[in-house]
Amino acid sequence: MQTSAPSDSLPAKTYIGIGQIKSLGAAAELPSTGGGCGTSGGEGKASCGTSDGPDDMPQEVWDKVKNHPCYSEEAHHHYARMHVAVAPACNIQCNYCNRKYDCSNESRPGVVSQKLTPEQAVKKVVAVASEIPQMTVLGVAGPGDALANPAKTFDTFRMLQEQAPDIKLCLSTNGLALPDQVDEICKYNVDHVTITINMVDPAVGEKIYPWIFWNHKRVTGYEAAKILHERQMLGLEMLTARGVLTKINSVLIPGINDEHLIEVNREVKKRGAFLHNIMPLISEAEHGTVFGLTGQRGPTASELKAVQDACMGGANLMRHCRQCRADAVGLLGEDRSEEFTLDKLEQMEVVYDLDKRKSYQDKVELERQAQQAAKHEALVAAANAVGVDDDMKVLVAVATKGGGRVNEHFGHVSEFQVFEVSAAQAQFVGHRRVDLYCQGGHGDDEQLPSVVNAINDCHAVLVAKIGACPRDELLAAGVEPVDQYVGEFIEKAALEWFNDYRSRIASGAITHQVRGDAQIRQGAFTGGLAEAA
Ligand code: CLF
Ligand code: SF4
């Protein structure tokens, strides 16, 4: 049996930073010694190190990530991505995936996609880019594996480059076919590749992958996981050597790979990964997955955060992933795919105006700079404020509909953004999906406990507006509803609230309490979307 090329078949098992690679230009010029993180942009940051801008990474890396909503946490408040579902087939089986539905790696399971031909996909991208000028990235992320469908994926990229050259190209893969496709990836200037890597030990892998399809036959068990692992490592090394930015997605499966992900983080960092995105397993019996049917649970919010925090010091962490559908459109956390179905596209008059896109994005940049300035100012104020405990950190939930501002009503929130706030920082650490509290103009009191549970680890929730009933319920649960920062930038509002909170503790008006754990919402997000048939 032919097996995959082992990772140590590379000329030198030595890894260098992205910035070095860019300046060296080719794998053949890799130095023979040395090592370290693939990101010159700082090690093990609590979230993607891109928010501090070009000072913390080489300019050419910053140019690639600054408008990519997944590679820059800060950009995700302002810039959108879209996926086109041109890749239906897959070459492996994951125990958390049921192929009747979208790829769990990059999708919310339980929601179908409209599969597209490359021609339909390009038409859709051009239409979306005309309507949503802040849409900067096209990703191929399923519903199967982008590289198990290379002709469809690369045809889409080729045609799109001709029609909309300003859109960045991105793809997501399980890695099995990756080493064979690195030349094509580079040929089409795909700057961003996501590899889902859930293990670096086949003994762990065989609990996650029942089989792979390799060399025209099905391989199972330990052998399957070993081949997959070797191909993932080789593919990652090859991309690093070619200067392609890589993000590693890992699904956190409690009891199977939770502690093991720390080793995964270490290994992918060694091989030059730019970002590591640790995502919670989504597993419900109704999804029909092996894990769903065997009762394998996903992590709680604090279990997820604990593993992410344990990985600090390794590869930079992404914490703002939304586990998107394979045909998602819009800002992360919103989904506008229903506005761009094939029948609606037929009715649209599409004019691709590069200048209009550019001028809109220039305005977004100004807003982004204002957000940075406001954050900086608030940090200075926080550092100088009188406090009780300078090491105190609390979580704050925020109702926002984008732009990095507190601008959403409590009842209209489908996801809260969660920030960890201290005297030294206001840092995005995650999001919590919830069912809308406000249905048809009225609050649905039956939804309220699940909304409160989703942010039960937070000390406050910043909103544009909130009714009396949810206000009372939140207060009773120990979460302070705050509506005095309407329209403010989030970090500034969170830091100002935190200063006020500390001063109330210092004056004896309140006592600081430790919060509980929160529930990560399971099941597909189906708001306004067609359910699987
Ligand atoms: Fe799509 Fe993925 Fe590219 Fe982003 S998504 S292919 S890198 S453009 Fe982003 Fe969605 Fe998370 Fe993926 S939030 S699931 S990380
Ligand atoms: Fe499903 Fe994606 Fe795994 Fe393939 S790689 S089985 S499509 S989750």
Would you summarize the structure shown here?
The chain is an alpha/beta fold and 533 residues long. The chain contains 15 helices and 18 strands. Mean pLDDT is 82; it is low at 1-52, 103-112 and 523-533.
Description of the structure:
With 533 residues, this protein is an alpha/beta fold. It contains 15 helices and 18 strands. The strands form four sheets. The chain has an eight-stranded mixed sheet. Strands 14-13-12-17-18 form a five-stranded mixed sheet. Strand 3, helix 4 and strand 4 form a beta-alpha-beta unit. Helix 3 crosses helix 4, helix 5 runs parallel beside helix 7 and helix 12 runs parallel beside helix 15. The N terminus and C terminus are likely disordered. The structure holds FE(8)-S(7) cluster (CLF) and iron/sulfur cluster (SF4). Iron/sulfur cluster binds next to strand 2.
Explain the layout of strands and helices.
Elements: H1 18-24, H2 59-65, E1 80-83, E2 92-93, H3 118-131, E3 135-140, H4 150-163, E4 168-173, H5 178-187, E5 192-196, H6 202-205, E6 211-214, E7 217-220, H7 221-241, E8 245-252, H8 260-270, E9 275-280, H9 290-294, H10 301-310, E10 317-318, E11 329-330, H11 342-347, H12 354-384, E12 394-398, E13 415-421, E14 426-433, E15 438-439, E16 442-443, H13 448-454, E17 460-462, H14 468-477, E18 480-482, H15 490-507
Helix pairs in contact: 3-4, 5-7, 12-15
Bound molecules: FE(8)-S(7) cluster (CLF) and iron/sulfur cluster (SF4).
FE(8)-S(7) cluster (CLF) binds at residues 70, 81, 83, 106, 137, 139, 141, 170, 172, 192, 194, 247, 277, 321-324, 332.
